[in-house]
Design a protein that fits this description.
Length: 309
């Protein structure tokens, strides 16, 4: 891989993918809507080419893709836009890759797996989505599988890390860091996975470099499961935060959804806060190598530090 295009470069995973590629000496085109954010994040990176644009505009996508070897699809659309835009967006990404004989590495979530069966979820677990968004993610996955374009699809748990502003933990940590009233989404005692975005970036970049990884889905687990109570305690010790942390319940999200379309969509996925899907990473470990795993104490510290700059 000599040159890569990262779509959604200012999002949490997109940012980390750009940084990982640049550190490996790969020339990277960082593509996102806002030039100001791109310059803030990557202006000092010698291996990064900043290219603002709209991924829904095919000509702008093709301009960014000229001369690249692989497209990292890390765009994270707002939930409320999924029904209308998720499939058309990825059709444009596929068309662009086909036109330039490029490969695609897709950042995906766990929604298509549906409800947990009480065991760790492997790549051979049948996908049985129980939500509208899960069904859309499965439709998106099948789009890539039927495209004829070389692809890898990486399934990740919830993100946290620098610039992962849509992550549930970032929602909590941002307010704790600035000593605001903070809220945890879901039950604090439930053990769940949260992947540190630089770990996820290392994993998907490694997959993209491996010929044998293409044409398959890959599960990328987090460091381990952890409860909300443990996360809050770690954050308190790091920041000196003394305020009570509130709880955002599913019913609260439904109520907020009466006034906010994004909150209404968010409520649908809150079964994951009660019945967590935990990923099995044995396939990656057996065929690629150790799954990148940053301990929560270190990952949370670096995320908190990103809000102190």
């Amino acid at each position: 891989m000599k040159k890569a295009l990262v779509l959604g470069a200012t999002g949490g995973m997109g940012y980390s993918i750009v940084k990982e590629l640049a550190q490996r000496g790969v020339k990277v085109v960082a593509f996102a809507r806002t030039e100001e954010k791109l310059k803030k994040m990557f202006g000092a990176e010698p291996n990064v080419i900043i290219q603002p644009g709209d991924a829904f505009q095919l000509k702008q996508l093709e301009s960014a893709a000229n001369g690249i070897d692989i497209i990292f699809q890390a765009i994270n659309l707002p939930y409320a836009d999924w029904k209308q835009n998720l499939i058309p967006l990825n059709e444009k990404v596929i068309r662009t890759a086909r036109n330039f004989s490029a490969r695609i590495a897709v950042v995906d979530n766990i929604y298509a797996y549906g409800r947990s069966n009480g065991k760790k979820i492997s790549e051979t677990t049948p996908k049985s989505p129980n939500t509208r968004k899960g069904k859309l993610r499965l439709e998106m996955e099948n789009l890539y599988k039927q495209s004829g374009v070389p692809y890898v699809i990486a399934h990740f748990p919830d993100f946290y890390g620098p610039y992962a502003e849509n992550g549930q933990l970032n929602y909590l940590l941002r307010d704790i860091t600035v000593n605001k009233k903070a809220r945890f989404i879901g039950k604090q005692g439930v053990l769940r996975e949260h992947i540190y975005t630089p770990d996820g970036a290392r994993a998907i970049v490694e997959l993209a470099l491996r010929e044998e990884a293409y044409g398959e889905c890959w599960n990328i687990p987090a460091y381990d499961v952890i409860s909300g109570e443990e996360i809050i305690q770690i954050a308190r010790e790091m920041t000196g935060y003394k305020k009570q942390v509130g709880i955002v319940t599913r019913n609260m999200l439904r109520f907020l959804g009466l006034f906010d379309k994004q909150m209404r969509e968010f409520a649908e996925m809150q079964y994951l806060a009660e019945e967590p899907v935990v990923l099995d990473g044995r396939k990656y470990e057996e065929r690629i190598g150790p799954v990148p795993r940053t301990a929560y104490v270190e990952g949370l510290r670096k995320t908190i530090d990103s809000y102190r700059k």
